[in-house]
Amino acid sequence: MRRLRTPLSVVAVGAALIAGWWIAFGTFDPCAAMRSEAEAIAVHAGGTDGRAIHDALLGPQAPKPSGFACFATALSLKVRGRDAVIIVKK
Question: Where are the domains of the chain?
């Protein structure tokens, strides 16, 4: 019975993390989650800052991130909101 407890706890923690991601973002695709969060922050910021955020993360010149980069960006945007984005004004 002791040997069964560890694999079950790993499965339980994994299921909790997956459920938490689904509840927070509504999708399992990390890039869709990142786009959704970036859109929400850009709309909330409004004005030139909102446009800069949108263009930096979603514009045609924006780099195409890998799955892990999408995951990290989506999580950062969800947790830190607009503070996760650094805007450099010239």
Answer: 27-84
Contacts of 2 (CB under 8 A, 6+ apart): none
Structure tokens at 83: 């503070």
Structure tokens of 32?
Answer: 């869709």
Provide the residue type at 41 as one letter.
I
Alpha-helical segments (H) within the chain: 2-25, 30-45, 47-58, 67-80
Report d(CA 55, CA 21) in Å as an integer: 25
Mean pLDDT lowest among 23-27, 38-42, 61-65, 86-90? 86-90
DSSP, res 60: T
